[in-house]
Amino acid sequence: MAQPQRSRPDSSSLAEVLDRILDKGVVIDVWARVSVVGIELLTVEARVVVASVDTFLHYAEEISKIEQATSEGDLEDLEELDVETRPESSPQSASE
Amino acid sequence: MTNRYVYGVVEAGDGVDREIDAVGGADRIYTIEHSRLGAVVSDIDTTEPERTDEDARRHDDILRELMDGGERTIVPMQFGMVFDNDRALKNVLRGGRPAFRRALSDVEGRVELGLKLVREEGAEVDDDAVRGAVDDELEELAADSVEEGLFSDRLVLNRSYLVDRENREAFDEAIGRLEAEFEEGGDLLVQYTGPFAPYSFVDVHIGAQ
To answer: Which CATH class is domain B110-196?
Structure first.
């Protein structure tokens, strides 16, 4: 039998593209995209948020900073807000 | 036109500004940066773009082109994510930053590939044995995988794989071996598709309260 060849994936299928771009990918609700009054408080659902209680508490703490800033009207100062997951609470390390 | 159609999110500095056929008849994509992230966008005159085949292709083609060469990591949006003002877009980049950062690191240097195994009409196939053979070949080469729906009883396997660029060639060869094995008997058809932006491996949903 001949040596099997390297297979090349087919990128031309519209059905495969539609399956992905209509059902997968990042979703942002219309209310977060079309702001009617000022700045809404966002809800973010992702693996990073539910990774661990530690991550969640850190996240909640940062969210409260946003709420405070919103009520004080100085959102522009929040540019450097850091709500990143700390390494020790990443999903990988939490599951290991 | 102040509406922005968003294709995906990149690290700040990985942005683009170029002429290209874009969704809704636009001819340019560019990047709006905030909170050390960038949203790759084009201008559009509606907030509810029609899902035409042509624009579906453009959305996907643009993401594919941005990924090409592997120097840029992009977190792909679902089709139709239009913002009616830049303030809302920046707010989402800011509030969603940890989720976008996590997603960027999950898919860095990786592409999505699709695999469907379809049973030929009337053929008898041992589904478990087939799936076992696929796992033996592909599990070690993929960084992640997700099961897609078996929407037909002839579909033996339907999966998306997240594969490191450096494993692409080995992955293609493994698929080649599976094709040789399965298609020789004439019972199974192998549909290997992609590479796609990692749509199936970014799990982010942003809403507003």
So the answer is: alpha beta
Partner residue opposite A9 with nearest CB, options B88, B192, B199: B192
Q: Which pLDDT does position A38 carry in this prediction? A: 53
Question: Which residue type does B66 have?
Answer: L
Confidence of residue A88 (pLDDT cuts 50, 70, 90): very low
Q: How close A96 gets to chain B, by Cα (Å)? A: 16
| A24 closest CB neighbour out of B35, B78, B94 | B78
Judging contacts by C-beta atoms under 8 Å, the chain A residues touching residue B112 are: 20
pLDDT digits (tens, 9 = 90+) for B5-51: 999 999 999 989 999 999 999 999 999 999 999 999 999 999 999 99
Cα of B124 to nearest chain A Cα, Å = 24
Token pair belonging to B170: 């080995």
Domain edges within chain B = 3-108, 110-196
Report the alpha-carbon angle B116-B200-B148, nearest 5.
35
C-beta of residue A12 within 8 angstroms of C-beta of residue B168: no
ipTM of the complex: 0.92
